[in-house]
Design a protein that fits this description.
The chain is mainly beta and about 400 residues long. About 5% of the residues lie in helices and about 40% in strands. The protein contains one helix and 24 strands. The strands form four sheets. The chain has a nine-stranded antiparallel β-sheet, with helices on one face. Strands 1, 3, 4, 6, 13, 14, 15 and 17 form an eight-stranded antiparallel β-sheet that branches. About 45% of the residues are buried.
């Protein structure tokens, strides 16, 4: 949930950074275990009290763990830009985003309005690094994928993805709310006006239709590891099972429209961000009127954050180890290369189909083809639109493997 003040703050924050439209983050991890200013990130706040973050401080609930502590301070007004905001120094795009964090308890003020966010963000109205309205639907692009927690109800997790947003509330977004303590999916919807449901999502846009519960889940009592994988045709939100962190629990595996102008998955780069702020108009589901101004300081804790580029996610089946996820596939090795304008593939055993895709270094898709393979190898001609000396990301998917690497086209 964004406000005009937040947009203006971001515009000022980015304006002083002089970021080139061609500058993108490589994969990085930030461990908040020292008092030094975090690398790869920059801080900003429009609040009256800007003393709202501390790095390398011991966690209040996990002795021995040093964290980044963000403060929601009574001196600061409502709106995201009034609280502490951190963002990546450069843009990001497709890849994996993850964080280990704990939100604050609201027990001492049950109706306090507070939001913790871990997300990506870029809006055409207030950023100028990239061309406007790249999806061509007449609205200002708003590239955003969210994990959010309203601290008045720590059993809930909010997931949202935006492609467009205007100041008057017009937008294009999808959203899901889940109660992880009960395993209940409260809603999964699509909206074209902020604060309103346009339609309930069904079919492939509503997967999985059921989720497992985490007994006694309370995002304020313990640290949990959350993440999402943002790709051109899919966004998948997940949490690691605290009882077995080799078990990745899928909260939403969204695979909706990718038609240009009508895509529900942003194809536009964005900044990685996390923040903590007071809301006076967004109450937590199940806790009416939970929008009170904080009477004292509340603290959210981040143990670490991580961004991995699409090129560095070499195998989507095993790079996040999981049981009981979308499928229990056995990973097999795929070898792929580009030589003499040919994409050459080899498989350990015969396979009957493969999907080949090429992306540029920004993660934008350049070429995609499905091929039938009945042997251990295959070859596909490189399209003429791929220039010599161009660096591309080559991705190959089969029924039991998912391979990606960065390749220089030499001829």
């Amino acid at each position: 949930m964004r406000t005009n003040g937040f947009f203006i703050f971001l515009m000022l924050l980015v304006a002083v950074s002089h970021i080139s439209a061609q500058t993108f983050m490589n994969s990085f991890t930030v461990n908040f275990d020292t008092s030094a200013s975090p690398a790869n990130l920059r801080f900003g706040s429009g609040g009256a009290n800007k003393n709202t973050w501390t790095n390398g401080i011991e966690s209040e609930t996990e002795p021995g763990t040093r964290v980044m502590r963000l403060a929601m301070h009574p001196d600061n007004a409502a709106n995201p830009w009034q609280g502490p905001n951190f963002e990546s120094r450069n843009l990001t795009l497709f890849g994996r985003y993850s964080a280990r964090l704990r939100i604050p308890s609201a027990e001492r003020q049950p109706l306090v309005g507070g939001v913790v966010g871990f997300f990506t963000y870029y809006n055409d109205l207030y950023n100028d690094e990239l061309p406007k309205d790249e999806n061509g639907n007449g609205l200002s692009d708003n590239s955003e994928v969210d994990f959010e927690w309203l601290i008045a109800n720590p059993q809930l997790v909010y997931m949202t993805a935006w492609t467009d947003q205007e100041e008057d509330g017009r937008c294009r977004k999808i959203g899901r709310i889940v109660n992880l303590a009960t395993g209940q999916i409260l809603l999964t919807n699509y909206s074209e006006m902020s604060g309103r449901t346009h339609s309930r999502l069904t079919g492939i846009e509503n997967q999985p239709e059921t989720i497992r519960s985490i007994p006694d889940f309370d995002a304020s009592k313990s640290f949990y590891t959350y993440g999402f994988e943002w790709k051109s045709d899919n966004i998948r939100w997940w949490i690691l099972n605290p009882a077995d962190e080799t078990d990745t629990m899928i909260l939403w595996d969204y695979r909706g429209s990718t038609t240009v102008g009508n895509s529900r998955i942003s194809q536009k780069p964005a900044f990685l961000m996390f923040n903590f702020w007071h809301t006076n108009n967004w109450a937590a589901e199940g806790v009416r009127n939970s929008t009170e101004k904080p009477e004292s300081v509340f603290y959210a804790e981040f143990d670490w954050i991580r961004y991995e580029t699409l090129a560095d996610i070499t195998n989507d089946v095993t790079s996040i180890t999981r049981k009981n996820a979308i499928s229990s596939q056995t990973t097999k090795t795929v070898n792929a290369s580009i030589t003499n304008r040919q994409i050459s593939l080899s498989f350990p055993t015969a396979t009957n189909a493969a999907n080949i895709a090429l992306y540029d270094v920004r993660g934008r898709i350049l070429f995609e083809r499905n091929i039938a393979v009945m042997t251990n190898s295959a070859s596909v001609a490189l399209p003429g639109s791929i220039a010599k000396n161009q660096v591309v990301i080559l991705r190959v998917k089969t029924n039991d493997s998912n391979f990606a690497k960065r390749v220089l086209v030499k001829s």
